Amino acid sequence: MILLYIFIFFTFIQFLYYLLIFNKLVFYKNKFSSGNKDEKIPVSIIICAQDESENLKAFLPKIYEQNYPDFQIVLVDDRSIDDTFDVMQSFKDKYPNQTYVVHIENSNDRRFVGNKKYALTMGIKGAKYEHLLFTDADCEPASKDWISIIASRFASKKQLVLGYGKYQNIQNSFLNKIIRYETLQTALQYFSYALKGIPYMGVGRNLAYTKKLFMDNNGFYSHLDILSGDDDLFVNEVATPENTAICIEPAAFTLSKPKTSWKEFIHQKRRHIATADHYKWKHRILLATYYAGLIGFYALAILLLIKQLHWQIVMALVVARFLYWFFINYKTMQKLDEKGLILYLPVLEVTLLLFQFYIFILNLFKKPTDWTV
């Protein structure tokens, strides 16, 4: 009987998170009807790249074509060995009044070797405007109103805007479904926590904040020695309920090229997950409790059903949990314009859970050492 009680406890934890946190995004009503306000604040867009010449050629023109009256693009070449710098210079030649280029050379200082935060800091210092919008070299805006909509979220004294960065849909690829599902789950969490008044992270593919917020908090100084975290660790440090806004309008999303091999994806997620150890304690406890509840739910449900112990009660709770989890994901997929995942939900959830556990074990033995992958 004690196993049943523990199972009920883990199921209860799941529902607590669904009802008290994730429901915040599910029932969120967008307060902004449009990004087209009369007053347009000037914006500096910062893009840091390393060996990204082809992506810059493909996606930069779509940023220069934005429907926005006053924006600057800051391009940071971080120790590239291809023709990235030449591509950046060509855009500067074409748009001299809108473009600022920073070139980072190799350094013997171990704090800076392979550290994207140093490159971004140089870009921020070179930005001429107070409001900063960040994306990656392999991203493209979902529409020509991307800047306009994101910038409008700085209203009401907000200093930090969390956006959504989608990945391209590749047909007949299970890896692609995993990548998109993981991205969706991450967004469900950080948007919901922000709406709950507990903002804890954002993604650098679509993130905006003020230069004052960056400077007042000494930039990335407190975690400069940590390889990753230029987005989530900075947000974790400076975000508050008062200074943070979210933006989930599809026209303000960014679209990125996903990894196409498991090896690349594992390398990428090892770097991302490694930063979670440096979150504030309250965030670490909340995130760990949720995943512990999820693991306990699955493990005990399988055990109790195999042994046919109180299987009627177990099945009733399993069905109830999955029905509400389907509802949460369905509504989230609608809001974030993610299609083609709902039918695979049980398989994707279990696969992602096992994948994250595998990454956690790998990181216990060796930390990733390169931000570019």
Features:
alpha/beta; 12 helices; 373 residues; Spore Coat Polysaccharide Biosynthesis Protein SpsA, Chain A; 12% strand
Describe the structure.
There is one protein chain. The chain is an alpha/beta fold and 373 residues long. It has 2 domains: 2-25 and 282-365, no CATH class; 34-262, Spore Coat Polysaccharide Biosynthesis Protein SpsA, Chain A, CATH 3.90.550.10. Helices cover 50% and strands 12% of the residues. It has helices at 2-26, 53-64, 84-94, 116-126, 146-152, 174-196, 211-216, 232-238, 262-274, 281-307, 311-335, 345-365, and strands spanning 43-49, 71-78, 99-104, 131-136, 139-141, 160-162, 165-167, 207-210, 244-246, 254-256. The chain has a 7-stranded mixed sheet with strand order 3-2-1-4-8-6-9, sandwiched between helices. Strands 5-10-7 form a 3-stranded mixed sheet. Helix 1 packs across helix 6, helix 1 packs across helix 10 (281-307) and helix 10 (281-307) packs across helix 11. The chain is elongated. The protein starts with a helix and ends in an 8-residue tail after the last helix.
Shape: elongated
Largest sheet: 7 strands, mixed
Order of helices and strands: HEHEHEHEEHEEHEHHEEHHHH
From the N-terminal CA to the C-terminal CA, the straight-line distance is: 48 Å
Oligomer: single chain
Level-2 CATH architecture of the largest domain: Alpha-Beta Complex
- Total strand segments: 10
Helix content: 40-55%
How large is the share of residues in beta strands? 5-15%
How are the strands ordered across the major sheet?
A: 3-2-1-4-8-6-9
Please give the domain count.
Answer: 2
Q: Could you say which structural class the secondary elements and strand pairing correspond to?
A: alpha/beta
| CATH topology group of the largest domain | Spore Coat Polysaccharide Biosynthesis Protein SpsA, Chain A
User: What is the CA-atom radius of gyration, in angstroms?
Assistant: 21 Å
Q: Helical segment tally?
A: 12
